[in-house]
What does this fold into?
Amino acid sequence: MSAISVTLRDIFWKFDRDKLRRVILAIFVIELVVFMYLYMSNRNLVNVVDNYLGSVRQPTLLFNIYGAEKTPLNRPLSVIVSGNKIYVADTGNQRIQVFDNSGNPLFTFGKNGAGKGEFRFPYGMAADKSGQLYVADMYNGNVQVFSKDGNFIKYFGSTADFIKPAGLFIDGETLYITDVALHKVMVFDLGGKKIRELGKKGKAPGEFDSPNAVTVANGNVIISDSGNDRVQVFNKLGQFAYYLGEGAKGGKVSFVNPRGVGVDAKGTIYVVNNIVNQVAGFNSKGEKLFVFGTMGNQPDQFYLPNGLFVDDQGRIFITDTVNQRVDVYQN
It folds into this structure.
């Protein structure tokens, strides 16, 4: 009897091992077929895996910046990070406030006026590789250059080039400037020589109505075409490529007065949807990944957000204008 039991046990054990081998082989074949399908369909396998594993996620709030007790922010409209310092256009106070990398106040510079180092409506900012800060003053119609410590250096370019300069972005040795009155984007070298212009007033692809913010990443120039309620993407030669948020994946995004734009190291594109009090995230194809924010003054709420900047640590800085703060997120 015991010999029969041993024989039956061996038979079933062999059967189970063979069955297991067949199951493993079947799984391998299925995975191989799926991989080849994705590859032959020219789909981005990395994005597919990321979405499956949930690595594309909504950013989480780290902290807020309100300014010093005696110098609180008043209608902050833009923010950048350079050299471990956070620079905020404290527009309602006609100055720039500077904070350390954790959001602690360091110093301010600028005051109300039309002279050197003075502002009427400081707006977009950018920093070059040496740490010099470029500030667009929309109402004075100029772009000023400062040292990293806030000392006036010079005016950039000619005031004849601008009427109402707004968004700034430096890509290597090239400065992009949007002008909401001229309805175009101007491209300069850092010596102040104009290289080319993008767009004119209109609604057709490649045309603008009050272009607000600009960023450059992965060979693309991304511009918030605020008056036309859309975001346009161009190649570096200035040729129109596509509208952001039109992709079928994730559905179409309806922009209402889009403002700040930025791109992180993963290629995720962030756009401030101003009137809707939200921030939307897209992949490099322009397809929606996530949307976050509602109107209010609580965490993950905004009240007319405006500027956006992504630093080297992947932190997303958003100027929450009416709430008079900068909201700092991490993705």
Q: What stands out?
A: Residues 233 and 242 are 5 Å apart (CA to CA). The two ends are 66 Å apart (CA to CA).
